[in-house]
Please model this.
Amino acid sequence: MNPFAYTSPRNTTDASALAVPNGDFALPVLKSGGMDLLDRMKEGLERPDLVVDLTRIDDPTLDAIDAGRIGGRVTLAMVAESEELRKSAPILGAASGSAATPQVRNVATVAGNLLQETRCWYWRMSQFDCLRKTGDDCPAREGDHRFHVIFQDGPCLMVHPSNLAPALFVLDGEVEVVGGDRTRIPIRDLYADPAVDWRSASVLSPAEIITGIRFKSAPNSAFIALKQKQSFDWPMVSGYAVLDLDGDVIKSARTCAGAVAPRPHPLPQVDAALAGLSIHDEARIRAACEISVDGADPLPGTAYKMTLLPVAIRRAVAAAAHSAGTARGGDA
Amino acid sequence: MNGGGPTIIGPLPAKTSLQVNGRQLDFVAEPATTLLEALREQCDVTGPKEVCDRAACGGCTVLLDERPVASCMMLALDATDRKITTVEGIGSVDAPDPLQMAMAEFDAMQCGFCTPGVVTAAKALLIQNPRPNLDEIRAALSGNLCRCGTYPNIFNAVLVASGQEPVEEPTDRGRSASGERA
Amino acid sequence: MSQPPRDLRAINAGQSVADHATRLDGLEKATGAARYGRDQIKKDMLWVRLIRCPWGRASLDSLDRDAALATPGVVEVVVSGDAGEYHGDSIGYVVARNRRALERGLQALDATWTRLDCKTGILDDEKARAPMGDPSAETAKAIDDAAFTFEATYSTPVQTHSSLETHGLMIEPDGENSIVHASTQGTFVVADQIGRFLGKPRSKIIIDCEHVGGGFGSKFQIGKEGAAGGLAAKTSGEAVYSFCDREEEHLDTGNRPSLLCKVRLGHDADGTIRGARFETFGGTGVSRRGGGARVPSGRFEFGTLDSPNHQDIQFNAGGPRAMRAPGCPQGAFVEELLIDEIAHRCGLDPLALRRRLDDSERRQRMYDVAADLIGWENRADTGSQTGTMRTGYGIGTCHWGKGRAPAKIEVVVHPDGHLEVRTGTQDIGTGQRTAMAALVAARIGVPLANISVAIGNSMLPAGPASGGSVCTPSTAPAAMAAADLARERILAGVAEREKLDADRLTIDDGVIMEGGRKVIRWEDACRRLSEPVSVTGEFDGQASAHWGEGSSEGVQAARVEVDCETGQIFVRDVIAIQSCGLPLVRKTAESQIMGGVIQGTSYALFEEQVLDPGTGAVLNANFENYKILGSEDCPRIVPVLWRDDQTGVRALGEPPVVPTAAAIANAVFNAIGRPVRDLPLRPDRVLAALAEPMAERVVAAAPRNADLENRA
Model:
């Protein structure tokens, strides 16, 4: 790690001010749990001269959980353990509880999870230049891209790393921000269009801080991660589903795919096909989930994800129908 | 930042204090120092191990206010106002914790390099959940890699340390008093 | 043991020298008190790190040595090369006052490289891509004479040892001497190798490795990191700390080499193999050798076998080092899956075919027990299942010898009755110190609590490195000899004082007896000593009375579940039956077997080094993407210590890792009806296999489990 100074502001106003490059510090950076930031700093991908610590900001709303809102500084572990959320939106606890390891989840925050950088192994290695850094080429395209996209929504082949962001997609979530001229950003607008901007982790300005996430209640919601390894591993593919049920009939559905595209990948065609189906109509639900790969353009090394995605979505739908937010996916 | 803004520490080395195992440890380090580095290199607390240095193996696990965290991926400055417990604070050779005794009794280690992290993560589980079942134990230890391959013995040690029966297994291990007659 | 006990708890009980003893350093390890080489940290020591090539092959264009030296805290920059032949290859090293200065010095060096074309795997070599060569006339005839011909290609990946304590050493000056705290499998190897770099005679070097965080075959040499540490210590005269980080550990401290194996054979309808040709290609990175695989192993009858056709294939990656049963897990994977494929083609139960092709009487009995414990009777015919989750059963086997090397063990009897076992050899987690203590305690007849062990130091009596299945078998006879000498000395004194015949004295639980009569307690007898008595037992490296006979056999059976929608494999149970000779400490012996199974399971499902095909950079030199089995992937394991009245002490570190991946691959084949011929058995490979037609049958299936039923 390069030398840097460290400061712990007590309010977000100070934090935002400190995060803007100025005469004293040209490369300030905000840090909450710091999990991804330290990873990038150790790799030499990021060399801040000032780390602005958010963990000592005196604002209880950053740490609060209620049925429709989670503070930005709440850890993934607290989300996973929340009884309140288990009732209102079980998908959030399931997605949070499946991320990384217990040690990481005790530190990593909701805001940090949404803003973490890709795990693309080319991007993570400092010796590779790539489209997402300063280069003109993507080394993954001709390289080993087994963990990369099937939806080529932009020239960069990374998949979005967040477990939580796709859950917010299906919950019509938005993020609360301070430090800029806006206070709410719909989750669908938090990430830049990868066809236009493939370098930014989000649309936030340096001074903007996510102070919370808001979402609608969805008792019938579920998350499935298909992992090679059941202990700490990143999903090969993940599936997210929210169902609005009328008895056994799906009034409407919202589904989204993770680990297949540079951003969380909503599946409106699946949602439309699921609407009106009985949750017991396995054949038609299966058919509806099969079209989750419509529009996919897999790489040679990601063809297997074409098989996994409909399965992940179908299992998420089934789990949501039975209100089982937590589903490991693999170990059915 | 001048005047009324918050205090800025560093980038040069600065006096830092940590509360480790009930003791205050003072040292001078630059902000670019992880908690693990501070413990091992400044405070001579070498129970937590540097293994992957990326929060992927659990070798450096310490308790932060009773929760297990990866000390390799946390700045020491982030932990100055927290209560830190390392494996040394859980028990010692002369006064071991029941969990540590069960680890030894069930041979839940070989090379032992993962063991401090495993003990610390398992202790955190038992603080939160005094009678965990096997699935809960597996989940709580899913961030701790053991390369020698002692997981089944670890599971049994945690079960017995929490007053439960070990998983049925092929031997009568753990049922004898120690001080074996050779 | 023809009728296995149904009470699993009874299997291993009562056979070992110490049935209930626990690892002597268990509490030290569980409390963090155990201090490893990597823990030898001083505030005023120097830190060393190698300057490494970031690409598969590259030439150095420039580096800014002055800038590095100008970095605060940087002490020395040594550049000795200008090209790298693999990612992690080194061209020099940097020495600095602390780790941050070291990092920043390396960064300030700003080495720029020109990437050169490189090879990244066995298949980059045209020799490996060429069609199979013609067998000899004799083998060709045998294959042609058989009813059916079978051809297949198998592959296994590069597996890294991934010891949790990385390679390296800490050197501290101590007057004229240098104390070297090393993470090593060979105390005396380090002692012999480090002097050249330290510039010191062997007599001025003390190696300390009281605790070692794993090795698995990769820590038999001091390596470049050790050499650089030695040189830096020599130059500076200061304490020096030179350890790899995790990335370097994956790049440049050895590995189990990859394998490509092509097979052509002829078999008859009853599964008899008439002739076979195996071509093997070992991926040795930049090393010229070390890629050998043991296939065929000799365990099964292959008819007329072509002479071995092995080639080591070089490419731009770090070279192999011995890894736990070198060449064997990869060979077993090929051979055992091949046997199961032949069995399936002929409509045979693979266990039945093994019984026919395997002439080991001991393994024949192990097959019965393994089948019983895994529940082989529940096995469905290969490919017969439908549905999402399918269960599979598979078998794998091994055989093993043991190595011998000279060893000395000193036993000191103190006047308080306490015994000190002194041995310079190391305990890398095998339980060596506990085994020696238990053996000496049992041999003399005193409680284990009376014994302490000094181990892992070059000032102690010399012993072998932990490898080649040498250490425990060779130190055990020395320990027994030392124990006998100590016992004789004490009993002779008692006999003389009490006017008794020493030959009639026995020691039972610390009490010296004559016939049924108590003579004196061990402690009281020792109290008569005016000073500690030291005796040394020696094993000369040749067969002796304590050596024992025969070989080790092993059979493992696995039960897996395969999710056929996702390709995920869940290994549920592994039965691991292993010849153990005379087990010394039951718990550590069982641990060795379990550890082998777990590493084998991890090898089967997850582990592979991934090289970028374009640049040769290793893409997963970390524990995020170099995947190792964790707590939620661990099967239930039943380790069975198979005594069979073998007398000698046998090695248990290596053989149990051999059959596991093979057994799992066979279980997957059984579940899904298609072989997955490439390790690791990744979900994408399982899905690809499932998209293929069911494995071919050339003979109609026999009634299910006919063979088992016939035997019952």
